[in-house]
Amino acid sequence: MGFFSKILDKLGFDAGASKVEAMLRTPPPSAGTAGAPVRAVDVVAQLEKKAAANAQKLNWRTSIVDLLKLLDIDSSLNARKELATELGCPANLMGDSAQMNMWLHKTVMAKLAANGGNVPKELLN
């Protein structure tokens, strides 16, 4: 099971092992277009529900570390590097954890949106 599939699983996406590879290749939706997901997932509602039940005040809207913590997934630097590699992070960002983290958060949100996740536009920029 790849790292991104753990995120999909925690959010309730229907992403069997064979689907994850295709989901990773799905480009983010362009303005005004949307794919035809098998089942839409309200990403914000899922995360808000988890945040309300969590004693920690996690800023999942901007922080990949907090997003992973909220999903109860390893958020260590090594884990984030594994996720970045899986998602195709540019090599020049891999050596700068702050830049990599910003890229990761944006990319994870875009991949969720591209695969049926209801993600508001402000979380995709």
Number of structural domains = 1
Give the terminus-to-terminus CA distance.
28 Å
Rounded mean pLDDT score: 84
Count every helix, treating DSSP H or I runs of 4 or more residues as helices: 7
How many distinct beta strands? 0
Q: Over all CA atoms, what is the radius of gyration? A: 14 Å
Shape: globular
Low-confidence stretches: 31-38
Helix content: 40-55%
Topology as H/E string? HHHHHHH
Walk me through the topology.
Elements: H1 3-10, H2 17-25, H3 43-52, H4 64-70, H5 77-87, H6 91-94, H7 97-114
Please tell me about this protein's structure.
54% of the residues lie in helices and 0% in strands. With 125 residues, it is mostly helical. It has one domain. α5 crosses α7. It is globular and about 35 Å long.
Summarize this entry quickly.
Helix content is 54%, strand content 0%. With 125 residues, the chain is an all-alpha fold.
What labels would you give this structure?
single chain, 125 residues, mainly alpha, 7 helices, 54% helix
